[in-house]
UniProtKB/TrEMBL annotation:
Keywords for the protein's UniProt record, in alphabetical order: Hydrolase, Membrane, Protease, Thiol protease, Transmembrane, Transmembrane helix
PANTHER family xref list: NLP_P60 DOMAIN-CONTAINING PROTEIN-RELATED, PEPTIDOGLYCAN DL-ENDOPEPTIDASE CWLO
Source species of the chain: freshwater metagenome
Pfam families with a match to the protein in the record: NLPC_P60 (PF00877)
GO biological process terms held by the UniProt record: proteolysis
Membrane-spanning intervals of the chain: 21-41
InterPro entries in alphabetical order: NLP_P60_dom, Papain-like_cys_pep_sf, PG_Endopeptidase_C40
GO terms assigned for molecular function: cysteine-type peptidase activity
Domain (NlpC/P60) ranges: 108-225
UniProt keyword Signal, yes or no: no
Designated name of the protein: Unannotated protein
Amino acid sequence: MQIAAGAGARCFHSNRVSRTLIGAALVLVATVVGLVPSPAVSTALSKPAHPAVAGSNTAVSVAAADALAALWARDDTYADKLAVVVPLVAVAGKVSTGRLADAWSTASRQRMIVLLSALTQVGVPYRARRAAAGVGFDCSGLTSWAWAQGGRYLPHQSLRQIRTIRRSTKAEVLPADILYYPGHAMLALGVGAAMVHAPYPGRSVEVSPATGRWERIVRVGTPDGQRAVVVSPTTTAPTTTRP
C-alpha cells in the first residue's frame, strides 16, 4: 500500500507539473497569436523599420536624407540641415527660396517627414507598379510610399488616391499635399503647384514646377480630412497595382 501511495503521489506531482508547463506554453502561444493582449503599442508617429535614405547621389537626395535623419532624431542640427535643402529644391521647383522656407518652417513634423522622404528619392528611376526606395516608383507609388513614412496609408493607384483625399486649393496648399490631374499624382512642395513626383517611363523622381497649362489643370487635395492624422507605426503602403 505504501508503494502504491508513493506511486500515486509521484503521479499526482507529475500531472501537476505537466499541467503547469502546458498552461505556460498555452499562454505563450496565445500571446504570440494575439489571443492574450500584449503590452499596449503606442500609435504615436514612430520611425519606420527601414527609414528613407538617399535613393541616389543627387545633391537634393543626399541633403534631404541628412535633414530627414536629423528630423527623426529631433536633433538640434535639423534647421541647419533643412536650410541646405531649401535652395536646392527652390531652384529645381522654380519657387522663391523665402516662400519655400516659410512653408516648411510652419509645416507639421509629419508632413516634413513625408516630403523629405520623397526628396530622398530624387534621381530614382520611374518603374511601373513599383514603390521601392532606391529601386523605382511610379507616380502613385511615390506618393503612397512617402505618406507611409509619415504613418498614413494611401492606395497605390492614382485614381483611388484622388477619390480618397479631401479637395483643397493651391492657395491653401501645404507641404506634402497631393497634387493631381487625371492619371497622375504628385507631392506638393508647399508653394503653388511646385512638386516632387515620378513623371513617366524614361524619367526619374524629380522636383518640378507646374507651369502654363499644367498649372491651370493641377488640383490639390490633402490626405487628412482635418489636416491632422492619428498614425500607426505599422502602416505600410502596397507595392503592386496600377500607377
